[in-house]
Amino acid sequence: MLLRDVELTELQDRTPANSWGTGTDRERKIYFGDGKWYKVWGPKYLSLTAAAIGNRFVGISGLKTLHGYEVGLYDSSNSGALIDFIRDDDNALRGYITRDGTMSEGRLPKQFVENLFATGLDCGWLYSDLCNSNVIVVDGQHSLIDFDTHLVNVAEFDVAFEKKSGALRDHVDPYFRQLLFQKFDT
Known about the structure:
By secondary structure, the protein is an alpha+beta fold. It has one domain (3-184). The protein is built from four helices and twelve strands, in the order βββββαβββαββββαα. The chain has helices at residues 64-70, 110-123, 159-165, 174-184; strands at 12-13, 28-33, 36-41, 51-54, 56-58, 82-87, 93-99, 102-103, 125-127, 135-138, 141-144, 151-157. The protein has a five-stranded antiparallel β-sheet, with no helix packed on it. The protein has a four-stranded mixed β-sheet with strand order 5-4-12-9. It starts with 11 loop residues before the first strand and ends with a helix. The relative contact order is 0.16.
């Protein structure tokens, strides 16, 4: 969908007051309307580093949101809420649209976590921010809703770095962290 076709003035602005990038050209805004969520960001937002490779953040070929989709990390088993990507007239990615759902509460289902972990290992890229605030339930199925989080390269996974800045931070789902420690903390 083209950004110019999204009637932002017709949608409710649900951007949290402390949203990252507020007031800058890297701003991220969140809108809601007609049972859909629209995450839209400023033109320079995607110039940010996009992946953790070893002990550093680096840019990757392809935008982080599209990269996760293109390598197969985001699929129908973990991203059923995703409706469409939003692009500007220059075909630059400017956001995405997801279905409305119920925020996930409590522990994420083991099967969902295991499937996302296995998919990440298979495609070579792991999701870095698996927590309840980034997962909803739609039609009885759990789905990621944060598609612009950085990805983690499996081949160069760095436990110390991920504890500080990525997939092993304290707020990440405990079972996902357990799987990561079992795989990478040797």
